[in-house]
Amino acid sequence: MSSRGRVVLESAWVLHRRPYRDTSEIVDLFTPNFGRVAAVARGSRRGKRRMPLEPFQPLHVSWAGRGEMVTLSAVEPRGPSIQAAGRRLLSMFYVNELVLRLTGRQDPNPDVFTAYEATIVGLGGQQDEAPLLRLFERDLLRALGYGLLLEHDVEGRSVERAVRYSYRLEEGPRRVGEGTGMALAISGDSLLAIHEGRFRSRDELREARTLLRAAVDHYLGGRPLKTRQVLNAFRARASGSSVLAK
Questions:
Q1: What DSSP string runs through the chain?
Q2: What is the tens place of the pLDDT at every residue in 122-151?
Q3: Looking at domain 86-245, which of 3.40.50.720, 1.10.510.10, 1.20.1440.120, 3.40.50.2300 is its CATH number?
């Protein structure tokens, strides 16, 4: 609810926070009705006035202000904090970074908010991590107007499961052997798995990861994601440990 520059009890998640002056913080909030909002939490680092502003805690927030920086007036939990550790926690920060980097401030997109919330809750539970990330990437790109062509090839023909395709970003899939040059190689099975949100094999997940990562990188303009670098290091370390254990 909002009135004359005041917003009361808006659903929100904390994407990022940083110290501001002696006792305050600047917080990047993600909301369904206002998009990303930069807010000053005055006195939030002072012991007696500490606010529950941890990432992965569903919140209701209230603020005042109309410009690019508003002032928080109240923060309260709207559910239990989402708990995770290790790679799953890193994946949650990866999702946060995607939202920070690909969405604009004060540009509401309820579909992205819904996908974000479902992904964070899933990562904090027992759902498989890789499919959750692939579907969030798919839904984020789609909601921002960058959706991938997955059901039809560039000639308008339905994608066939047994056919191999070469995928060019901002164009779509072509059957291998049609046209010139080679783009990302992907099977019809994998394209339809991304579209349907159901992955039946590791190969489908691997090809989905390659395509969606390329699309995300394209719209990031080549700027590297910090969380991806940490995740890659984590995977490499875990893989090395597995090899040594054998």
A1: -EETTEEEEEEEEEEEEEEETTTEEEEEEEETTTEEEEEEETTTTSGGG-----TT--EEEEEE-SSSEEEEEEEEESSPPPP--HHHHHHHHHHHHHHHHHS-BT---HHHHHHHHHHHHHHTTTS-HHHHHHHHHHHHHHHTT-----SB-TTSPBP-TT-EEEEETTTEEEETTSSSS--EEEEHHHHHHHHHT---SHHHHHHHHHHHHHHHHHHHTTPPPHHHHHHHHHHHHHHHHHHHH-
A2: 999 999 999 999 999 999 999 999 999 999
A3: 1.20.1440.120
Total-model pTM: 0.89
Domain ranges of the chain: 2-77, 86-245
